[in-house]
User: Fold this.
Amino acid sequence: MSELVAIFITAFLVGLSGALMPGPLLIVNLHQTGQRGWSAAPLVTLGHGLAELLFLAALLIGFGRWLAQPQAAQLIATLGGSVLLYMSLGMLREAKMASLSPTHTSKASPGWGPITAGLVTSFSNPYWFVWWSTVGATYVALVRPLGWAGLLAFFSGHIFSDLSWFLVVSLTFVSGRRLFSDRVYRYVLTALAGFLALLGGGFLLYALHLGSGGNI
Assistant:
């Protein structure tokens, strides 16, 4: 039992170190929180967790070997960068009329709920693939001798780190709503969309770099 607790704690701490880094999933969490309140955080985490559960299953059947190929990294970076740019454009359109009013519904909303947004954003991030195919794969190899109990301890600790951080961020954002006017919120949404576009553009440049054999 103590070994399983140790796995849970270390998975939580390692996962938290990644969750604390600004990235597309944090931006999506803030965006969804602005639309739905703090309850968006567990739903975004659920979508993210579904993506990670699928990846964990893929690792268990040997998918990690394909990810080691340069062509796989290029494909992931290209698709991921394109999706993030698409999400950024949708966020920019929404920023024109976004409101923190709970009764407001934006006609410019891309239409993705928090679960779908969490799922799609996870698969759109090449660095998420890199983490799971390296650190995540190592964890899986270490806990597999303990069977399903070891895998569950690792996975639950990892997901709980994401849920904890996103809840803190969402609750902080919601509690500070009285400091935000709709105009300020639109500026924030525009800035987040710009950051998402930079990430997407960076991923596409990385794909070009891989495709040129490192000459770009």
Q: What stands out?
A: Residues 17 and 25 are 14 Å apart (CA to CA). The chain has one domain: 2-211. The chain is about 80% helix and 0% strand.
